[in-house]
Amino acid sequence: MNPLKRMSLAALSAALLALSGSAWSQTPPWPSKPIRIVVAYGPGGQTDIVARVIGERLQQRLGQPVLVENRAGGGGNVGTDHVAKSAPDGYTLAMAAISNFGANPALYPKIPYDPLKDFVPVAHAISTSNVLVVHPSFPARTLPELIALAKAKPGALSYASAGAGTSIHLFMEVLKLRAGLDITHIPYRGSAPALQDVVGGQVPMIFDSMPSAFPMVKAGKLRALAVSSGTRSPVAPDVPTVAEQGVANFDLVSWIGFAAPAGTPDPIVQRLNGEINAILRMPEVVARFNELGAQTVGGSTASFDAFIRQEIATWTDVVKKAGITAD
Q1: Cα 196 to Cα 203: distance, rounded to the nearest angstrom
Q2: What is the spatial distance between Cα 80 and Cα 84, in angstroms, rounded to a whole number?
Q3: Which of 34, 102, 281, 316 could form a disulfide with 106, with the two C-beta atoms 3.0–4.6 Å apart?
Q4: Nearest CA-CA partner of 210 in 271, 131, 282
Q5: What are the pLDDT tens digits along the chain (327 aa)?
Q6: Please, how many CA atoms are within 13 Å of residue 40, restricted to the half-sphere of its CB?
């Protein structure tokens, strides 16, 4: 190569390097604009509560507005798919839950997103028991009494849920399977309207999350019959578990976390993981969730990824064996 051509190539390389460095230096640091947290369910439910409690403190720590956006529909599929198709730039996050990141791949044959391929896990926020509650006028005061009533009138009783695939739906269907019950499922677009109709007496029962339902129990507007976990909840020690009331091997908990679209830069994902973990360690946040019956979890992105994979496998097996459908 002649010296002139060598110099030209060297000059071109230097120019490209300078241009690249200039473009990089002009890229605004993250975050430089508002962040959206998409809740794939209606406002007022457990997922919405977690998003708002953590989102408020994330806003303080990041110095940018953090907006919670409810996009309900399709058992969580509509809002989740919206995030899956959003730009992977750290400005749109999804709330991952037992439904949209656990059971929905088994419940819906044509789910529009893949929770493993289309997302990167960010942080595992909370886990919680669900609580089976009934309207105060409901004649059954214990789970065995409810089971006896349901068996005496097959198909006559009904329960509300936040939609197909939610923990409220799944846990009740497992209870029906294990206890041999015929109780009609009435799905709603979110936990809040479902719970409202149980409080109003339009539907007799719901197996709702603790953060959503237990305040109504403490207010005397609902009666608690059982919790879904294998041990009693520390915030409701007087409420027996399903298992100790005669339904063996019943130990189910709900969970919620954060996820970002696949391709989101790892430094952003790790920054979010660190900030959310710091928030989950705040005494007032721990106390807030504990009083609602939830426990903070936290951990690495890798541990949350492994957890989601196990949940998908578990609920795929449960959905198949129980014959649970999205109807």
Answers
A1: 9
A2: 6
A3: 316
A4: 131
A5: 554 444 455 555 555 545 444 443 446 799 999 999 999 988 988 899 999 999 999 999 999 999 999 999 888 899 999 999 999 999 999 999 999 999 999 998 889 999 999 999 999 999 999 999 999 999 999 999 999 999 999 999 999 998 888 889 999 999 999 999 999 999 998 888 999 999 999 999 999 988 889 889 999 999 999 999 999 998 889 999 999 999 998 999 999 999 999 999 999 999 999 999 999 999 999 999 988 888 999 999 999 999 999 999 989 988 888 788 876
A6: 31
Neighbouring residues of 188: CB distance < 8 A, sequence distance ≥ 6: 160, 161, 162, 163, 194, 197
CA distances from 125 to 128, 165, 219 (A): 10, 20, 27
